[in-house]
Design brief:
Blueprint lengths: L9 H11 L26 E5 L11 H10 L5 E8 L5 E3 L11 H4 L5 E5 L2 E5 L7 H4 L25 H8 L3 E6 L2 H6 L4 H11 L4 E4 L2 H7 L8 E5 L14 H4 L3 H4 L5 E5 L18 H7 L3 E7 L13 H9 L8 E4 L3 H10 L13 E4 L12 H9 L4 E8 L5 E3 L21 E2 L7 E2 L7 H4 L23 E6 L2 H8 L3 H11 L9 E6 L2 H10 L3 E6 L5 E2 L1 H10 L2 E5 L6 E2 L2 E2 L5 H7 L3 E7 L14 H11 L4 E4 L2 H8 L40 E2 L1 H4 L33
Parallel strand pairs: 1-2, 1-11, 2-6, 6-7, 7-8, 8-9, 9-10, 10-11, 12-25, 13-17, 17-18, 18-19, 19-21, 20-26, 21-24, 24-25
Antiparallel strand pairs: 2-3, 4-5, 13-14, 15-16, 22-23
EC number: 3.1.4.46
Protein name: glycerophosphodiester phosphodiesterase
Catalytic activity: a sn-glycero-3-phosphodiester + H2O = an alcohol + sn-glycerol 3-phosphate + H(+)
């Protein structure tokens, strides 16, 4: 049935949608009452256009996508509809001219594949022009991008007519995108007549098209309140009605102004990117458009798509570079994830002019700024300091010549090129450390390790602040201490205590020291001999902790570091619930730090919308953690400065924490992942360990001749 929310799942959708409404609705303009800070053509805040709704998560143009866009983003969000015509001249919202990938039509009409010429290009597939609206009512929308979850496809979403977008969702604004006018004409259909007719029944705020002839044909027939926007495609493609390339048309914006009030361009028209994915200087297209009296909108934003390394995998940083760079601002952005530009516009613009810092959460680096540079290198640490880390970490390992160093793994094969070096023959299996082969830090001297090239770690494997924080801390953590003492004759605890003492950390208060370990005996020894803050690392995902285990931890630790899934358990990357672990730890007098928060979308639950700011906000505001351990310090520091913190009931919806299990409930019963066994509960026996063995002297081996030093260009220089 046309216009239904979805077939067979309306009630479950309604329940879940009402849960979403628990988020506070209402857009909060951070600069309300002041002169406009925006460098848009009108001086208004940039528009947020939800492409097919919240299509980064749900099937494009589906009920869930449109509803969620309005519930989780700015209430001013515009809903985008790619208009296609059916055989009986009904306009429908569909992300592609073909039905193949975005619907299940191949299962419904397996013999319906056709071959057509579209704008001069032979094209095969299933096309809406071959089906009437009744026939397409049997077809369901599905996720067309294979890197996104397909579990919502089982809800059997109906295809919407254009008029349904207004009647079903009450959107404040609708954007219709129209392409392939000539193709419809070849099939005796008139997109022009349809758009003119629908604009008399439905309030349309924007109509965009990449075809000059189409926009000029409707310019005098639609409401003057409807903005006509010329859409630029790839610069090398020829526009079908003028046969000029889009790159050529870009040089004649005065001509575009004769029939359009704005232009829509791929984002790389504004900020070009090199072949190796680094930003080039911005072009003049935004200022050129504004000089011509044209608004300019940027397209192709998606949090889970590849974008320049300059943004450190942070989509919010990318949006800010388009709307708040101090030089220009686009007039709107078209996004698959409208929550992120909502944050950019409402809470994070203008921060460079503000000294605001909310203090919470404590930001602890993870191997330095290891999301940008190889773990524990000088560049990673320097960037972490520059980006505003409150605490700099050092995972302590030991070399063969008994020098304590900062290295993310005791196995050099994990984060260096040692397996390709002259030391590859040193590979061995040490069962006490790992089941597979390794070349370990204690196999090489410090001089030998410095000849190796570091490697940046991948997330699947395991905008700097204006001023540095007033107090920085040094966080050292120790693993394998018992092995080092017993097998290597080296007391890592003694070495660290002596090193810190020699550096003067015992006699000053400006810099503080935190010692972290998953071995309670290590922390007990530090508590006996120092006054450092001690952090107990729980190195497995747990559901809770017994009161007696919490009492045991409190005897030797001031804080606990817990895996992020111990806060929000996941099933197939969907958050299923929120545990009580954080509150129980805090009630026991322990601060709580969540690890490891990363910007790369592949490391996040679907519930965070591929947005690291949503992730941080959910752990801080939703779960109440005291600090975060992160590869990307700059993202966390910017979060601490956002303009929408501590607003109580006035907090905008897009800055509310995610609702644990909210998305999971939206999955139709046939697609629900099987329940996972419950995570374990921490007990006394998990916490208490035998005392560390005494270190026994091990004879040193004869010196090896050093290979040629590894001389590397920045940013790959290595030192700890």
């Amino acid at each position: 049935m046309w216009g239904s929310v979805c077939r067979g799942e309306f009630s479950s959708f309604l329940v879940a949608f009402l849960l979403l409404q628990q988020l506070q609705l209402g857009f909060v303009a951070a600069q309300g009452g002041k002169a406009s800070p925006w460098m848009t053509l009108s001086g208004n805040a940039p528009a947020i256009i939800a492409k097919g709704g919240f299509s980064g998560l749900f099937p494009d143009s589906s009920a869930y996508a449109y509803n969620f866009a309005l519930a989780a983003s700015s209430p001013a969000t515009t809903l985008w509809c790619d208009v296609r015509l059916t055989k009986d001249s009904i306009g429908i919202c569909l992300p592609d001219l073909k039905l193949d990938n975005c619907t299940d039509i191949q299962n419904i009409y397996p013999d319906g594949k056709k071959d057509y010429v579209v704008n001069g290009v032979p094209t095969s597939g299933w096309f809406p022009v071959d089906y009437n609206s009744t026939e397409l009512s049997q077809v369901s929308l599905q996720q067309s991008i294979y890197t996104r979850t397909n579990l919502f496809d089982y809800s059997l979403f109906a295809i919407f007519r254009v008029e349904d977008i207004e009647s079903q969702f009450k959107s404040p604004a609708i954007w219709l995108n129209v392409q392939h006018d000539m193709f419809y004409t070849q099939h005796n259909l008139s997109m022009r007549n349809y758009i003119i007719a629908i604009s008399k029944r439905v309030v349309i705020s924007y109509i965009s098209s990449p075809e000059v002839s189409f926009l000029t044909s409707i310019a005098a027939r639609v409401s003057s309140k409807t903005k006509l926007v010329f859409r630029f495609l790839d610069a090398t493609i020829a526009e079908p009605s003028t046969n000029q390339t889009y790159g050529s048309l870009l040089k004649n914006l005065t001509f575009i102004k004769t029939f359009a009030s704005g232009i829509l361009v791929p984002k790389n028209y504004i900020w070009p990117v090199t072949s190796d994915n680094y930003l080039q200087p911005s072009t003049s297209v935004v200022t050129d458009a504004h000089k011509a009296g044209l608004e300019i909108y940027a397209a192709d934003f998606a949090n889970d798509n590849s974008f320049s390394y300059n943004y450190s995998y942070d989509p919010l940083a990318e949006y800010l570079n388009f709307i708040d760079n101090g030089i220009f601002s686009v007039d709107g952005v078209v996004s698959d994830f409208p929550i992120t530009p909502s944050e950019a516009v409402g809470c994070f613009s203008g921060l460079n002019k503000s000294s605001l810092d909310h203090g919470k959460p404590v930001i602890i680096s993870h191997y330095g700024a290891s999301g940008d540079y190889p773990d524990c290198t000088d560049l990673a640490y320097q960037k972490a300091v520059d980006d505003g880390a409150d605490v700099i970490d050092c995972p302590v390992q030991v070399t063969e010549d008994r020098i304590p160093i900062c290295m993310s793994s005791i196995n050099l094969m994990d984060d260096t090129t040692v397996s390709l070096s002259n030391f590859s023959s040193l590979s061995s299996v040490i069962r006490e450390l790992q089941s597979g082969p390794g070349i370990f830090t204690f196999n090489l001297t410090w001089a030998e390790i410095k000849t190796l090239q570091p490697m940046i770690s991948a997330p699947g494997e395991h905008l700097p602040s204006a001023k540095k924080p007033k107090i920085q801390k040094c966080r050292k953590f120790h693993e394998n201490a018992a092995f080092m003492a017993q097998k290597l004759g080296f007391s890592v605890t003694d070495a660290v205590i002596h090193t810190l003492s020699d550096a003067g950390y015992n006699n000053q208060t400006t810099l503080q020291v935190m010692i972290q370990s998953s071995n309670s005996s290590v922390l007990v020894k530090f508590k006996q001999q120092t006054k450092y803050n001690l952090v107990y690392l729980i190195d497995e995902s747990i559901n809770d902790a017994t009161p007696s285990s919490l009492a045991d931890i409190k005897k030797f630790a001031d804080a606990v570091a817990i895996d992020k899934k111990s806060v929000f358990p996941e099933n197939q990357k969907f958050i299923t619930a929120q545990t009580n672990l954080v509150s129980h730890l805090q009630k026991a007098g322990l601060s709580v730090y969540a690890y490891v928060l990363r910007n790369e979308f592949v490391s996040q639950a679907w519930d965070f919308f591929s947005d690291p700011t949503v992730q941080i906000n959910s752990y801080v505001q939703g779960a109440g953690v005291d600090g975060v351990i992160t590869d990307f310090v700059a993202t966390a520091r910017r979060y601490k400065r956002n303009l929408c913190m501590n607003m109580g009931n006035n907090t905008p919806n897009y800055m509310g924490p995610v609702q644990p299990g909210g998305l999971f409930q939206l999955i139709a019963a046939p697609a629900q992942p099987p329940a996972l066994p419950p995570m374990p509960i921490l007990t006394d026996s998990d916490v208490m360990e035998p005392p560390l063995p005494n270190a026994t002297l091990v004879p040193a081996r004869p010196a090896r001749s050093l290979p040629a030093p590894c001389v590397l260009p920045l940013p790959h220089r290595y030192s700890c």
